[in-house]
Write a structure and sequence with these properties.
The structure holds two protein chains of two kinds.
Chain A lengths: L4 E2 L2 H7 L3 E6 H10 L5 E4 L6 H13 L4 E4 L3 H13 L4 E5 L2 H5 L3 H7 L5 E6 L14 H5 L5 E5 L2 H16 L7 E6 L7 E6 L4 E2 L33 H20 L1 H8 L3 E4 L5 E5 L2 H15 L4 E6 L1 E3 L3 H10 L2 E3 L8 H9 L6 E2 L12 H13 L1
Parallel strand pairs in A: 1-10, 3-4, 3-5, 5-6, 6-8, 7-8, 12-13, 12-15, 15-16
Antiparallel strand pairs in A: 2-9, 7-14, 11-13
Helix pairs in contact in A: 2-3, 2-8, 8-10, 11-14
Chain B lengths: L17 H8 L29 H12 L6 E4 L4 H5 L7 E2 L6 H15 L6 E7 H7 L1 H9 L5 E6 L34 H7 L4 E5 L4 H17 L3 E6 L3 H4 L6 H10 L6 E4 L1 H16 L1
Parallel strand pairs in B: 1-2, 1-3, 3-4, 4-6, 5-6
Antiparallel strand pairs in B: 5-7
Helix pairs in contact in B: 2-8, 4-6
The chains are: A alpha/beta, B alpha/beta.
The complex binds thiamine diphosphate and magnesium ion.
């Protein structure tokens, strides 16, 4: 293994001197995993995720990770990752689009098993017709798996979120999986300036003895010897056990809020919040909105921006409060179904001011002009 | 495992369930016990909720009694009838989802190797015929191709029993079952041969009608998986509930099927595994 100094998360995130690098999102993943003290990573190729997991393989060969292999398909990979996490090690994997859907049964299973797995999702369109193009549709399906969901706007977010995701996921009062989502190609395949902590520093290792459920290693009680397993009993106690377990997963996500606040500076970032028109967005739709806001400004229109970094837990209260002051709320999205629009509508008091547009999908980029059109429409109403 | 971890803290004795107290008093851990000693110690399966006459229940008792190293064995199961018994097994055991048992076991075993480099932690998969030969076959075979150090045990009751007796790949050809209303159209899958050709260093087929032989095979399979390569044991035990025979006829039914030539005990061992096992078994005789 390569020699690295173990530092506290705070030292790594906030105190260590960072170096600016001009790298792709895939390379940002590599840099994050170098400092994450990951025990094991398992991969399966899918565009646009493949390069990041090649790079993770490269750093395994260099001695930053103890174990790495290619699994046979995404469902199997997510299963193997679950087995490794249950054995009490820190694991990482990544997928996207069809891979996400192929593996789907495992995501609620991770949450239900309280596994602090970190998985990066490089989003891409879903067949049919066959597509490899950017699209965030898969995130609609992921919203109710019990996983925490962070959405990166750019390479810097991706680097920080992946690294911090391990710390949030492993908090004993959270201890559920975290998905870090990045818009495929737009983030993974483009170069950007990313400030990187020194690669000779790493996070402290995972401590399975701080987990709310025991590692499956035959080193801890309880042995599960009981006469009356809940699984197949049709009685109130077994229903209540399952119901309260599900509620506890939701409660764990709620308890993550304070860590997202302290480590990521909050679930949202807000600019110009008193403007009449607000744009609420996540991922690269935020960057496109920034461009649009600049253009609108030159036309004398003042527009605020809410960047959502955490989708699960969702910043419900903040969104409700911000939207209450605005005349119109515009939600640009890179998918057809408008899942962020739905989320926002469930949070705000007056849904009639929510504009679920523009939406681009099927691989198209989002011209800021489309967002400006919506801004103009709202301003003229 | 350090045995002191499951001792009861003084003054908590009266609130602990009887079966747990019995386990603490006469556990099988680290004592080298086996099938011949059944009845003299607390078994690792506390009763079971399976049907009367279920051969899986008997097989499970025999497998658990045959583990060479129960104190450091983790079991990976799958959805199906046997999953109902696992909450009552006094070993760490995992139920993930239906069919992914060998993928889970692959990650688990590699991770346990990282965490306990100087200790043997046996990982044993115990799953149904549907889980092993149908829905999970790709992951079962891929774990063999990858030479994972795990043992796979199939509980072959020749049907999807837990969902009400549907045809599985391991059902005999011609049998009328749910979802095979005109009889199964293709023969029972040759899993032992598939295992042999897919990289298993040790392969066996046996039934609970031969407990001592079953014990020997399970031990050989687990020992082989530690050092040589993946291993596979197929345990034949048709489902009385879905094949509609009397619970007390389970063993007779197995013997009848054997006589008719539908079931044969088998053992395939690679030369390397043979040498390794011979060394171990020779050493045992010297003790
Ligand atoms: C993904 C998925 N598909 C189907 C099922 C339903 N299911 C549960 S158990 C089972 C059959 C199990 O058959 P087998 O592996 O032979 O075990 P047995 O019950 O016979 O012991 C099925 C089809 C499921 N739980 N999950
Ligand atoms: Mg079966």
């Amino acid at each position: 293994m390569i020699e690295q100094k173990v530092v506290t998360p705070e030292q790594l995130f906030f105190e260590a001197e960072r170096e600016e690098q001009f790298i792709t999102g895939s390379e940002a993943i590599r840099e994050a995993i170098k400092s994450a003290n990951v025990d094991m990573a398992i991969s399966y190729p899918i565009t646009p995720q493949s390069e990041s997991m090649h790079l993770v393989g490269d750093i395994f060969a260099e001695g930053y990770i103890k174990e790495y292999f290619r699994g046979e398909n995404e469902f199997a990979v997510m299963s193997s990752v679950a087995g490794a996490a249950m054995a009490g090690v820190r694991v990482f994997t990544a997928t996207g689009g069809p891979g996400t859907l192929r593996a789907f049964e495992m995501f609620p299973t991770w949450s239900g098993s309280r596994l602090p797995i970190v998985c990066a999702f490089m989003t891409r369109g879903i067949n049919s017709p066959l597509t490899i193009q950017p699209d965030t549709l898969e995130m609609a399906y992921m919203l109710d798996t019990g996983m925490l969901m962070l959405h990166a706007e750019n390479g810097q977010d991706l680097y920080d979120m992946v690294l911090k995701a391990f710390v949030i996921a492993e908090k004993p009062d959270v201890h559920v999986p975290v998905g870090v989502f990045a818009d495929g190609f737009f983030v993974t395949h483009t170069r950007d300036k990313v400030n990187i902590a020194p690669a000779d520093m790493k996070l402290p290792s995972y401590n399975p003895n701080c987990a709310p459920v025991p590692a499956m290693d035959m080193e801890t009680v309880p042995f599960r010897q009981m006469r009356d397993p809940f699984v197949m009993k049709s009685n109130f106690i077994s229903y209540a056990a399952h119901a309260s377990w599900q509620q506890e997963i939701l409660a764990a996500a709620e308890r993550a809020r304070k860590y997202i606040d302290s480590l990521l500076g909050g679930l949202i970032e807000v600019e110009n919040e008193d403007a009449d028109i607000l744009i609420i967005a996540s991922g690269t739709a935020v960057s496109q909105s920034r461009e649009a806001i600049q253009q609108a400004k030159s036309e004398g229109l003042s527009v605020g921006l809410v960047k959502i970094k955490s989708l699960r837990p969702f910043p419900t209260e903040q969104i409700r409060r911000l939207a209450a002051k605005a005349k119109a709320v515009i939600i640009p999205e890179f998918n057809r179904v408008g899942w962020l629009c739905r989320e926002v509508k469930t949070a705000v008091d007056d849904t009639t001011k929510v504009v679920g547009a523009p939406r681009v999908f099927g691989g198209m980029t989002m011209p800021p002009q489309l967002i400006v059109d919506e801004i103009r429409r709202c301003a003229n109403e | 495992m350090n045995k002191s971890i499951f001792k009861i803290t003084p003054c908590f004795e009266d609130i602990m369930p009887d079966e747990y107290k019995e386990l603490v008093e006469s556990d099988p851990f680290g004592k080298g016990l086996g099938v011949s000693q059944l009845g003299t110690y607390k078994e690792l399966l506390e009763e079971h909720p399976l049907c009367a006459g279920c051969g899986l229940a008997l097989s499970l008792r025999l497998i658990l009694a045959s583990l060479p190293n129960p104190e450091d064995t983790v079991i990976v199961g799958s959805t199906g009838c046997s999953a109902l018994a696992f909450p009552q097994v006094a070993l760490h055991n995992i139920h993930s989802v239906f069919g992914n048992q060998n993928a889970v076991a692959s990650g688990l075993k590699r991770a346990l190797k990282l965490r306990f480099p100087d200790k043997v932690k046996d990982v044993v998969v115990i799953a149904g015929d549907g889980a092993t030969a149908d829905i999970g076959l790709d992951m079962v075979m891929q774990s063999w191709f990858r030479c994972e150090n795990i043992t796979t045990i199939m509980l072959d009751n020749e049907a999807y029993a837990n969902t009400g007796g549907q045809e599985s790949g391991m059902s005999p050809q011609g049998t009328v079952l749910n979802m095979a209303p005109k009889g199964k159209k293709f023969p029972k899958i040759s899993m032992p041969e598939i295992a042999r050709e897919s990289g298993c260093a040790y392969v066996a087929a046996i039934s609970p009608a031969q407990p001592k032989r079953l014990e020997k095979m399970v031990r050989r399979a687990i020992l082989t998986a530690r050092e040589v390569g993946p291993s596979y044991v197929q345990i034949f035990s048709p489902c009385p509930t879905n094949y509609k025979f009397k619970p007390q006829e389970m063993v007779a039914r197995i013997k009848q099927r054997e006589k008719e030539g539908f079931f044969k005990s088998k053992e395939y061992i690679t030369t390397e595994a043979q040498e390794y096992l011979a060394g171990l078994e020779e050493g045992k005789k010297d003790e």
